[in-house]
Amino acid sequence: MSPVAFPMHRAAVLHGPKDIRIEDRPVWPPQYDHVQVAVKSTGLCGSDLHYYKDGRNGDFAIQNPLVLGHEAAGTVVSVGPGVKHLVPGQRVAIEAGVMCRQCNYCRSGRYNLCKSLWFASSAKTIPHHDGTLQDRMNHPSHVLHPLPDNCSFEVAALAEPLSVLIHASRRADLQQGQRVLVFGVGSIGILACALAKSYGAAQVVAVDINQQRLDFAKSNGFASRTYCLPTVDEAKTTDEQLRRSRENIQRVLADFDTPDGYDVVFECTGAESCIQMSIHAAVTGGKVMLVGMGSRNVMLPISAAALREVDIQGSFRYANTYPQALSLLASGKLQNIEKLVTHRLRLHETARAFDLLARGRDEQGNMVMKIMIAP
Q1: How far, in Å, CA of 237 to CA of 208, rounded?
Q2: Pairing state of beta strands 97-98 and 118-119?
Q3: Helix (H, G, I), strand (E, B) or coil at 3
Q4: Contact 123/66 with Cβ under 8 angstroms?
Q5: What pLDDT score was predicted for residue 364?
Q6: Residue 3 pLDDT class (50, 70, 90 cuts)
Q7: CB 184 within 8 A of CB 164
Q8: Is the CB of residue 18 less than 8 Å from the CB of residue 53?
Q9: What is the pTM for the complete model shown?
């Protein structure tokens, strides 16, 4: 059947570094067990920004035009054959990862590790699967999650990054009354702080190199205390870097009046020096959760971890987190979480939005934290 028989919709399509074009595309009807969603809100993510700036995210370079965006919510427009639990008009959050549901990882509940999993807006699989920066999107029904009545599209779009922290918190077995330190207060770090507080953490503190972001975290109640690390020249040797990391975190812990360290440390920067500091920041018997994606190879003070039984745990995306994320977002327990969204633009302004995110400040000098894209 000719595409001209179908209505058209807009998509923000990445063709190469800093080359996003608004294109008209046909709206195909949803296939079996798929649902067509009118996307109402998409949050821009750091991985999206890497694709926009460099045409790649780590090892994954775009091989063909790609629609970015994976933090999203919208309204069901139509359902394909076999869909029983969703109806047109229903509001949903879009989980971007689609698992096979057959392998051992999927069957054991760890579908984030599924080797056949594909992720909308990622260039890992070829052909790529388009993301949510488009007016309409067809997506498998089992990864669409109904929204609570009091959860807006914009807040629901935060369920994706919040899921990253829920998964990390589960792996860390985060408990009420524990003390938590967060390295990096971008969107992910702020969500780590908010989630730890909602779990009943006894203390939540944050460390960054950006004073404006730290001020945001403290003034909005995400962290009770903050510390701004000084920017210094790169260390000339590995030994010097390890020594600096140990001495820096000793100063931080002294400033926080917690010389013995923290029960759980969320490392949300991916920076080598912060990963090194995280090990020294954890209390004896504590845990370091590696959430940030940055340095591929890192020199670690491994004896400082081994001799004190500090567990270093990786955390990759999430699994079975969306119901909890949406419930938390609707509950009001994540106080001031809506303030994480600092800027709002429309789909035809997507390129400008990415440029804004890359700069970190708008034309008036205001900090850019999370940008939401509406149709």
Answers
A1: 23
A2: antiparallel
A3: helix
A4: yes
A5: 95
A6: very low
A7: no
A8: yes
A9: 0.95
Structure token digits, residue 194: 């908010």
Task: Tell me the CA distances in angstroms from 213 to 48, 69, 190, 264, 368, one per residue in order.
Answer: 21, 24, 9, 21, 9
Residues 86, 148 contacting (CB under 8 angstroms) = no
Structure-token pair, residue 172: 């860390």
Helical H segments across 208-271, by residue range = 211-219, 238-255
C-beta separation of 166 from 195 below 8 A? yes
- Spatial neighbors of 238 by CB under 8 A, at least 6 apart, are 299
User: Are residues 106 and 99 in contact, defined by beta-carbon separation less than 8 angstroms?
Assistant: yes
Residues counted in the chain: 375
Sign of CA dihedral 319, 337, 156, 332: positive
CA angle 230, 235, 239 (to 5 degrees): 120
pLDDT, averaged across the chain: 96
Write the CA distances from 152 to 81, 110, 218, integer angstroms. 28, 29, 25
- Residues 180 and 286: beta-carbon distance below 8 Å: no
Q: Single out the residue of 151, 8, 147, 11 nearest to residue 76, CA to CA.
A: 147
CA distance linking residue 78 with residue 243, whole number of Å = 59
Q: What is the DSSP string of 96-126?
A: -EE--S-SHHHHTT-GGG-TT-EETT-SSSS
Integer Cα distance of 243 and 22 in angstroms? 50
The string of pLDDT tens digits covering residues 217-230 is: 999 999 999 999 99
pLDDT in tens, 290-349: 999 877 788 999 999 999 999 999 999 999 999 999 999 999 999 999 999 999 999 999
Q: Is residue 172 a contact partner of residue 313, using CB atoms and an 8 Å limit?
A: yes
End-to-end CA distance of the chain: 28
